[in-house]
C-alpha cells in the first residue's frame, strides 16, 4: 500500500480556501491535459464508496484534483467527515484501481480544504442514491441546514410521499440521518446536507 | 513512560494538544457507550458524534506531532501519554452517568466548541483554519442535536426535567476553565491564531441562555465556584481510568504494527 498523505494539509492548493460552510461549489479544476484527466476519471468512476457502494468516489464529489507531478499521477481526495472510517480504504481502493489501469505508483493526497459538501454530489450520484433507497440531500448546504433552522421536506425515496419525519439526526453512517415515511411506514436513510 | 513531548512543547503545540485531547477524551466517553445507549437510534447518534470527534482529534494531534518533530504521530500522542500530559477540559472527562448527564456534557461542550471553531476557521495559521472549517460543520450538527435534547428533556416530563437540571447543576462547576484565559490562550490570541476568550465566553453564554430558557432550565450562576486544571494537566480522577482502558492494548503490545 502506498503510504498516502497522512497529514490533512496539502502541498497543492488549486482552490482558494473557503472558510464558509458549504458555499464552495467549484467542480473539478483543469489540471493537465483534458483527455488524460478524463481517462483517470473513467477509472475512478468505477471505484465505489465502500459504505454507499451505489455511488462512485467521483459521483460523491470527493475526488478534488487530478494532476501530474513530474509525470507521476497525483490524485487529491477529501474525506466526507473528519472521522470517516472509510477514508483510508477509499484511498487504498483508488490507488489499486489506478495501478491496475496502468498508472505506476500514483500519489494519493488527502486534502481537507475546502471542506467537502454534499453540494458536490453529482446529479447522477443523487439519482443513484434515490434509486438505492437513500433520499439525496434536499437543497444546498448552508449553516441554516446544519443548525436545523431550515429543515427541508424530505420525500420518501420508496413511495414519493412528502409525509415524512426525522427519527434521528444520525443514520447508519455519519453522513446520513434516519427518517420514516408516515404513508408507506418504511424507515429510510437521508443523505443529509453538509 | 518517558515524556518526550514536554521538552518540545510550545504555546502552539500545547494549544493543539488541548484541542485534540478535548475531542479524543469526549470521543472515548462516547465509545464507552457502545452497546449501552437507551435506544438504537441514540446509539447510532452517539457513536457517530464520537467518530467525528476522533477524526478531529487525529487532525489536531497529527499537526501537534509534526510541530513537536520528535518522530511521533497522532497515535503516539493518543496512546502513550499519561493523564498529567493530557490537556483536555475537565468537563469532557466527566463520567457518562445517565442520559441527561451525557447530553448535558455534550451541550455545554458543543456550545463552546462551535463558537471556538467559528473563530479558528479564520485563524492566521492555515492548517488550524482548515481543520477547524472541517470540524465546524460537524460540531454545528452536534450542537443542533444536543440543544434539541436539552430542550426535550428540560421541557419534558417532571422526571426528565429534574434529571436534566441535576445534570446541569453537577456539570456547571467544570465550565469555568473553558472561559478563563491563561498564558497559552493569550499567546494564541496575540498571534491571531485563536479568538479572545472574552469574545468566546460571551457567545457561549448567549447560546447556553437561549437553550436553557427554551428548556425551562435554571442556569447556575456564572460566578459559582469552578474546578480548573484540565488545561494544565491537573485532572479529576476519572481521566486515568478512561485512559487505562483506551491505552491498554497499544501499551501492552508496543511493537505491534497492525491492530
Structural account:
The complex is a heterodimer of chains A (194) and B (259). Chain A is of the alpha/beta class and 194 residues long. Chain A is built from 4 helices and 7 strands, in the order αββαβαβαβββ. Chain A has 2 domains: 86 residues, GMP Synthetase, Chain A, domain 3 (2-Layer Sandwich); 59 residues, no CATH class. Helix content of chain A is 21%, strand content 18%. Chains A and B meet through α4 of A and α3 and α7 of B.
Précis, in short:
The complex is a heterodimer of chains A (194) and B (259). By secondary structure, chain A is α/β, with parallel strands linked by helices. Chain A has helices spanning 34-44, 87-100, 123-132, 143-147, and strands at 63-69, 72-77, 107-110, 134-135, 164-168, 176-181, 187-191.
List keywords for this structure.
heterodimer, A: 194 residues, GMP Synthetase, Chain A, domain 3, 2 domains, 4-stranded mixed beta sheet, 3-stranded mixed beta sheet, B: 259 residues, mainly alpha, Ferritin, 67% helix
Number of strands of chain A: 7
Order of strands across the main sheet of chain A: 4-7-6-5
Summed up, the helix count of chain A is 4
Strand content of chain B: under 5%
General form of chain A: elongated
What is the number of domains of chain B? Answer: 1
Summed over residues and divided by their number, the pLDDT of chain A gives a mean of 82
The succession of helices and strands of chain B, N to C, reads: HHHHHHHHHHHH
Please specify the SSE layout and strand pairing.
The complex is a heterodimer of chains A (194) and B (259).
Chain A: H1 34-44, E1 63-69, E2 72-77, H2 87-100, E3 107-110, H3 123-132, E4 134-135, H4 143-147, E5 164-168, E6 176-181, E7 187-191
Parallel strand pairs in A: 2-3, 4-7
Antiparallel strand pairs in A: 1-2, 5-6, 6-7
Chain B: H1 4-7, H2 11-31, H3 40-68, H4 74-79, H5 90-93, H6 99-120, H7 126-154, H8 158-171, H9 176-179, H10 183-190, H11 197-214, H12 238-252
